[in-house]
Design brief:
Radius of gyration: 29 Å
Number of strands: 22
Distance between the termini: 32 Å
Structural class: alpha/beta
Number of domains: 3
Shape: globular
Number of helices: 15
CATH class of the largest domain: Alpha Beta
Largest sheet: 11 strands, mixed
Length: 501
């Protein structure tokens, strides 16, 4: 597969792996609503924030929606969009790698871009997500008013690229509206309700589908040039049920497609502004919620996010936006009953995102509130990036908690996340037949510097070890090699044997 090349590409390929694991420091004063809400606003660089989320959320995010800087070479008020092309690619590549790790197997990524970087993004995403996993490139009509000051063509669209992590993803159908049902009628008073005529012809030549049909009156109708749409037994069964009938003195076949049997509609590749909103609609939504805040140059309307989440998620699923901007993704996800995490590096994490989500929790009525029946509820927690788990010398930071290190060790060993609400005990869990233990920070109640953090025969009795192979992390081990082998224990010394520092 052809690969995209840019300055410092080789360095960027390893940036995600080499990024340090950092702590997430809670800012309780900026929390709002339900105390134990799973929703999170994180202030800080999204590369470090995404890495910090891995031990807790790897493989759990159902949908990623991002609206990264477009690299338009014009400085926006709220973030620097004037990134040189290679710098833009350097920024995006490691972040896409981490986003893919956070996605569940049936998860998807959606990214809005314009023509400045859209096609480069596709080549890069093809490499990271694999070309076969591209769902499509949706054209979104972000503007309906002509721009007479445009030097060449008045642009009215953005791209929305969609990728699935694997074939496990199932595309949801969109709800039907009256506009989509205008072709259905019931002039013959069919008891099964409104219907429209459907095609009976095979789209491709199939010799086994080229058979004559005998009508109830005994007449014969020859097959279309490429054959019928179904095998003969299926065709005749549809005649019995009334789905297929005959017209014009039994010389013409009519297939009825019933409205009652239509579960929804397939998403199309062009999304018009009157359906999912425009940037002007988005600006109006934001100004209504935050009348004193500066409006972004290219905000996204809540209806656009709603369309994506209708296609890609169910209620209760986890949604992530690592370029949160003014908080639109979080607002739409909250109103639709999805869990969410939003990451924003700028000060507007506090000036825009936090107050906007406060109003959402309080039940603000703008955006998609009316169509979703939103009246308030829930909450969120606010975090900012803290220091790395390890210092420059590789030592564990003095302020790290047991659970923070436990989550890191568990993820480094198993590749799956550990709940941040797990019970505080040395036994971290069992994965693929191996039990994992962490002796750290006086976990067994002895708060002396090394006591309780050193594996001894006496401490081993207190661990209530499981049968089978075990991995124990601690500051030191006083058991002999023979004793470790006999008890199927692999001892790893902290911090030196902790991977992915």
């Amino acid at each position: 597969m052809p690969l995209l090349s840019w300055f410092r590409r080789d360095v960027d390929l390893t940036r995600a792996a080499l990024a340090p694991y950092r702590l997430l420091r809670p800012i309780a004063a900026l929390d709002y609503g339900e105390k134990d809400s799973p929703n999170m606003i994180i202030k800080g660089d999204n590369l470090d924030a995404l890495k910090a989320l891995l031990p807790y959320y790897a493989g759990q995010v159902k949908c990623v929606f991002i609206d990264p800087p477009y690299n338009t070479r014009s400085a926006f008020d709220h973030y620097d969009d004037n990134l040189e092309h290679s710098q833009w690619l350097s920024m995006m590549y490691p972040r896409l790698q981490l986003l893919r790790e956070l996605l569940s197997e049936d998860g998807t990524l959606w990214a809005t871009l314009d023509d400045h970087e859209a096609h480069y993004f596709k080549v890069m995403a093809d490499e990271i997500f694999y070309r076969k996993n591209m769902i499509g490139n949706v054209i979104w009509q972000h503007s309906v008013q002509g721009k007479n000051d445009s030097k060449k063509i008045s642009l009215h669209h953005n791209h929305v690229f969609a990728y699935q992590k694997s074939d496990a993803f199932t595309m949801r159908k969109l709800a039907r509206t009256d506009e989509h049902n205008t072709n259905y009628g019931n002039k013959d008073n069919d008891p099964r309700g409104p219907w429209r005529a459907g095609d009976v012809r095979s789209p491709n030549l199939r010799e086994n589908l080229r058979y004559p049909v005998e009508t109830p009156s005994g007449k014969t109708i020859l097959p279309p040039p490429k054959g019928w749409r179904w095998k003969k037994d299926v065709f005749m069964e549809k005649v019995k049920t009334g789905e297929i009938t005959f017209l014009n003195d039994d010389t013409r076949v009519l297939r009825k497609i019933y409205l009652s049997e239509q579960e929804g509609r397939i998403a199309e590749s062009i999304w018009f502004g009157h359906e999912v909103g425009t940037t002007r609609d988005a600006s109006r939504e934001l100004s209504q919620v935050l009348p004193d805040a500066e409006i972004f140059a290219t905000p996204k309307p809540e209806a656009l996010i709603q369309r994506v989440l209708e296609i890609a998620t169910d209620e209760g699923d986890l949604v992530l936006d690592s370029f949160l901007g003014s908080g639109t993704t979080a607002a739409a996800a909250h109103k639709m009953g999805r869990r969410w995490i939003g990451i924003e590096i700028g000060d507007h994490a506090i000036s825009h995102c936090q107050p906007r989500l406060v109003r959402v929790v309080d039940g603000e009525g703008g955006g998609i509130s009316e169509v979703t029946g939103w009246s308030g509820g829930g909450g969120f927690r606010f975090f900012e990036l803290g220091g790395p788990v390890f210092d420059d010398a590789g030592h564990i930071q003095t302020d790290i908690t047991f659970e923070q290190l436990a989550a890191h060790v568990w993820f480094a060993e198993t590749g799956v996340p550990r709940s941040s609400y797990a019970e505080r005990e040395p036994f971290l869990g069992k994965h693929q037949g191996v039990s994992y233990y962490l002796l750290f920070n006086g976990i067994l109640g002895d708060l002396r510097k090394t006591a309780g953090n050193v594996l001894t025969k006496r401490l081993l009795r207190d661990l209530h070890v499981q049968e089978g192979p075990k991995v124990v992390y601690g500051e030191a081990c006083f058991l002999s090699v023979e004793e470790l082998l006999e008890r199927e224990i692999t001892f790893k010394q902290t911090p030196y044997d902790i991977k992915a520092r």
